[in-house]
Amino acid sequence: MPAKGVLILAVTADVVIAGGGVIGTAIAWRAAMSGLDVVVVDPDIGDGASLVAAGMLAPVSESLFGEGELLALNLLALRRFPEFAAELEKAAGDEIGLRTEGTLAVAYDAGDYAALLRLTSFRRSAGLEAEELDSRACRKLEPFLTPDVHGGVLFGGDWSVDNRRYAAALRKAMLAAGARTVRDRVTEVRPGVGVITASGASVRSDQVVVATGCWTGTIDGLPPQIRGAVRPVKGQLLRLRHPDRMPPVTTHTIRATVRGADIYLVPRADGEMIIGATQEERGHDQTVTAGAVHDMLHDAMSVLPVTSELILAETCAGLRPGTPDNGPIVGRADGLLIATGHYRNGILMSAATADAVLAYLSGERPEAEWNAFTPGRLA
Ligand code: GLY
After folding, report:
1. Residues 6+ apart with CB under 8 A from 320
2. How does residue 6 score in pLDDT terms, banded at 50, 70 and 90?
3. Tell me: the pLDDT tens digits for 20-37?
4. 275 CA → ligand 1 middle, Å
5. Distance (Å, rounded) from C-alpha 315 to C-alpha 242?
6. Structure confidence at residue 4 (pLDDT)
7. Which residues are CB-contacts of 213 (< 8 A; sequence separation ≥ 6)?
8. CA-CA distance, 219 to 211, in Å (whole number)?
9. Which of 134, 165, 195, 308 is most buried when burial is the number of CB atoms within 10 A of its CB?
10. Residue from 234, 344, 349, 350 whose mutation best tests the ligand 1 pocket (most atoms within 8 A of CB)
């Protein structure tokens, strides 16, 4: 029962979307553009985990052994991104900082280099572009890298976007297209009926889309196999910026393995640099720890010593929605439309996920790349 004195809203819509991160707002924008009456329910629309991300659109350098189907889906997502981004920039009237320079993966010592080359041969076998570079060639591309770097590989197919600009543009575009918002937390979903919120409000709709990210496990009314499949995976990040008049210290996204530990440094057009990220199983804890800040700065400075000259502007922690096979969960389940569990690739997959959900809403099937990622695989 809602607390005494709480105002009970009873909104109706064609589609209600539980969750207003980049997945929920991308779906809302496209659904509103297609003429549907859309309501998004979230206490922090566009201000949750989507803000704590590096914005890597990195199907190549995020791909791991044994994840071929996920790689195919991420490649589909990347192919879709430029047109979606151009339309979004036009709709929102703001730039979102898309960068296409690629990722330079570097290895600190011979052991790190051997591991990088093993991963590179797997990525090549999947048809991906990868150029092996010795230490000198790495420093020709990125002159501030330490001369101690053992060698590297340039993955030209990886891009990045400014995730904060992107989230803000999606929110603006979705509102301009007519989507409405309820700032409240969804506690329960009811297939074919709607959602209930923490304050006892209800939004009624035949079509309920669940885009609740790392909070999916807390929502009543979800099939238990979906509720149980999504867990929060904490990622701590640093945001640095260049002092006035200091030119950008890198052009590419740099990924490094420093004595076995992975780190990435993602430059932004406006002079910011994101350094990340930890990967921690700590439930919904979002604290920033001294050890993580120390380790990330230490590893970043090991490969790019000039990092020490940058200003530490912000430390933050967010929660990725992890799943048992690291893939998203997108499709129909028990009368609900599920779009969650995007784990390390939420920004990358947001445009393609919006397409897939729009296909389901119109009674069609999305592209074949989604077949391995339906809720049915969890049964
Ligand atoms: N995609 C990068 C991360 O999740 O840390």
Report:
1. 49, 214, 232, 233, 234, 235, 342, 343, 344, 346
2. very low
3. 999 999 999 999 999 999
4. 10
5. 16
6. 46
7. 19, 21, 23, 48, 49, 230, 319, 321, 340, 342, 346
8. 11
9. 195
10. 344
Could you tell me how many residues make up the chain?
Answer: 379
Could you give the domains of the chain?
10-52+165-230+325-378 (3.50.50.60), 103-156+232-322 (3.30.9.10)
Q: Does the pTM of the predicted model rise above 0.90?
A: yes
What 3-state DSSP class applies to 355?
A: helix
* Residue 57 structure tokens: 């659109």
Q: In what order do the strands lie in the sheet with 180-182?
A: 180-182, 38-41, 15-18, 207-210, 336-340, 329-333
- Report the pLDDT averaged over residues 309-329: 97
C-alpha of residue 59 to centroid of ligand 1, in Å? 11
Nearest to 250 by CA among 78, 52, 101, 80: 101
